[in-house]
Specification:
There is one protein chain. Helix content is about 70%, strand content about 0%. It is globular and about 95 Å long.
Length: about 625
């Protein structure tokens, strides 16, 4: 600065006015330069590129969530089915029961255990949405996998007071688990869309996307889930195929008293030998097998706990719970008024029928009755592998109408049911091997198209995240009801079972076609209104500008009411809105009868307290 002043004075002395001297900024020394470089903008930083990397990582996290949840569900269901099958085979053998357990009564325990698994889900519609909203989608899946692991652990000590309560717990958990799983996969598809189209205005403002925007990702993610899920049938047969098969008698012994198979049979394997084990498996080997299954169940729990992210943001979880537990309890029943769900009810029932029929009806009365118990695991492996591979056929919904996939699966099953109705293979006939495996593979194709298409159609019809748990609850509850009916009809003739299956399938197809016809005519469904969240607790998200420390203050109530009036409602909810507006007008009319609108009691009390405080201050 002194040098600049000297230059200015010299210029003035020489006759200049000093304007030619420019005030140059001071040159920073080394330390100041380093600080400026550190705090200043990075010339190499590209905001757009960093944003792309951020959302790419988000999309990879979503894919990781889908794969982890699918593998966790596959391991859980595979362990459950494998242990249950091995347990039923061992307990069926008379020698095993007498030598190992004596007078414990394992067959009676098995009957009550199966009753607990199949009967308990009847009441699942009452508690499933409440449990999912209370625990959250991810934690409901984790809790359910833990209960399945508990069922595995009870087989270390097979008694009435261990097996039956754990079976009842499984029955309680079945519907919440698969409802949460369907909801989770659908939410991941919606998140993937948001992370892919993050520059869209409706995504940035967290508004509803255009109708059908999620469909592509819903189709892909549900297809991936079922491709992995059907591998559970392969996993379930590993204990029997690797360990138990070498202890089973060949078909000439187990089927010696069986006279008829297939369409002519009554019940399940009438005349099947009561002794199926050639030698009793060592107890130490059984403990090792059960320990391996327990370890796999524990791994599935860890997959869900560690690798699966949350389905909703924390604030969204709060909003989902804040509509009131009474409303959460009622909404599944109110959604049944929607004609789209009512027309899908027959398909829900058929979906439960066919999966249990193929395991208990076709595989036992056609497969085992013909080629023996020793080939049981391979028939189920053929079915599961076929269903897993051909689940990818549902990707055709990306290009073709959604009706094609579901109706193709129905057509395949209709043809197979008619053939099974007329086919009665002879017992102990190894020449029927190719036909048994072919039927298992083709039935797996129909099952894959059926299950995958139903889940995709439900997720496409109900894109609102506030409704998905209710809709999937209804779907899996009807499936559980159908499985219970199949459990009851075990003693019916085979042709009666096939006739029921065929009738339900035809009704399902006609009902679904009528639903699509009504949708094409733009018939508006009757969808219940989801109540707006009402937050009566203080929290970081719901603080008000004034009186924000007052819990349940009048300002927060007014703000929630104004927000609910400003939000745009769906076209389907207009009727409910009109009724609520009429109620509000009636309430205003009653409040204004005195000519002057009365203030709320809480506000009057607060004003009185403020007035008393002011008087006290003036007196002081």
């Amino acid at each position: 600065m002194a040098n600049n002043l000297n230059q200015y004075e010299e210029a003035c002395i020489n006759g200049g006015d000093g304007l030619g001297i420019q005030n140059e900024p001071p040159v920073p020394d080394g330390a100041e330069a380093q600080i400026d470089d550190f705090l200043g903008p990075n010339p190499e930083y590209n905001e757009e590129e960093e944003e792309k990397k951020y959302y790419r990582r988000k999309r990879l996290i979503v894919i990781k969530n889908v794969v982890a949840a699918s593998v966790g569900g596959m391991l859980t269901y595979g362990v459950y089915l494998g242990l249950l099958q091995m347990q039923l085979i061992l307990h069926y053998d008379e020698t095993y029961r007498e030598v190992k357990y004596g007078s414990v009564g394992l067959q009676d325990i098995d009957n009550k255990m199966l009753m607990g698994i199949n009967v308990t889900p009847i009441v699942a519609l009452l508690y499933t949405p409440v449990l999912i909203r209370f625990f959250g989608t991810k934690w409901m899946i984790f809790l359910a996998t833990g209960i399945y692991a508990l069922f595995v652990s009870t087989n270390y000590w097979e008694r009435y007071y261990t097996l039956v309560p754990s079976a009842v717990a499984i029955g309680v958990t079945i519907v919440p688990l698969w409802t949460s799983m369907g909801n989770y996969i659908t939410r991941m598809a919606q998140k993937y869309y948001e992370y892919t189209n993050y520059k869209e205005q409706h995504v940035q403002e967290q508004k509803k996307p255009p109708r059908g925007a999620y469909h592509r990702y819903i189709i892909i993610f549900h297809t991936v889930f079922y491709m992995l899920f059907y591998l559970s049938f392969i996993l379930a047969e590993m204990p029997t195929a690797i360990f138990l098969r070498k202890f089973i008698f060949p078909r000439n012994h187990t089927l010696a008293e069986v006279k008829v198979c297939g369409g002519d049979s009554i019940g399940i394997l009438k005349g099947f030998n009561k002794t199926v084990l050639l030698t009793l498996p060592p107890s130490r080997d059984l403990i090792v097998v059960e320990s391996v299954l327990m370890a796999v169940a524990f791994i599935s729990m860890l997959l869900v706990l560690v690798l699966c992210g949350a389905a909703y943001r924390p604030t969204e979880e709060i909003d989902l719970r804040s509509i009131g537990w009474g409303n959460i309890f009622q909404l599944p029943f109110k959604h049944m008024r929607d004609y789209r769900l009512r027309h899908l009810f027959p398909f829900f029932i058929y979906s439960g029928f066919e999966v249990l029929f193929v395991v208990t009806g076709f595989i036992l009365c056609y497969g085992v009755c013909t080629i023996g118990m020793e080939n049981l695991p391979y028939i189920i492996i053929a079915y599961g592998l076929s269903a897993s591979i051909f689940s990818c056929l549902s990707l055709s919904m990306l290009k073709l109408p959604r009706q094609v996939s579901l109706l193709s699966g129905a057509a395949i099953h209709a043809i197979l049911i008619i053939v099974l109705f007329c086919w009665s293979p002879t017992p102990r006939n190894p020449n029927q091997n190719p036909f048994i495996y072919l039927f298992a593979v083709v039935w797996g194709i129909g099952s894959a198209l059926n299950k995958t298409s139903l889940s995709i159609i439900l997720a496409m019809l109900y894109e609102d995240k506030e409704r998905q748990d209710f809709v999937f609850t209804i779907y899996h509850w009807w499936q559980a009801m159908a499985i219970f009916i199949v459990y009851l009809w075990a003693s019916l003739p085979m042709r009666a079972k096939l006739a029921i299956l065929l009738v339900v399938l035809l009704v399902s197809t006609l009902s679904y076609l009528w639903m699509e016809h009504k949708i094409s005519l733009n018939v508006r469904p009757r969808i219940p209104k989801i109540p707006k969240p009402r937050h009566k607790v203080k929290g970081y998200r719901y603080l008000e500008d004034e009186n924000s420390d007052e819990s349940g203050s009048e300002h927060s109530d007014e703000a929630s009411e104004e927000g609910s009036n400003e939000d745009e409602e769906d076209d389907e909810e207009e009727d409910d809105d009109k009724g609520s507006q009429e109620d509000v007008r009636g309430a205003d009319h009653i409040g204004n009868r005195g000519g002057k609108r009365r203030e709320p009691r809480r506000r009057r009390k607060r004003n009185q307290n403020n007035h008393s405080y002011e008087q006290a201050v003036e007196e002081e």
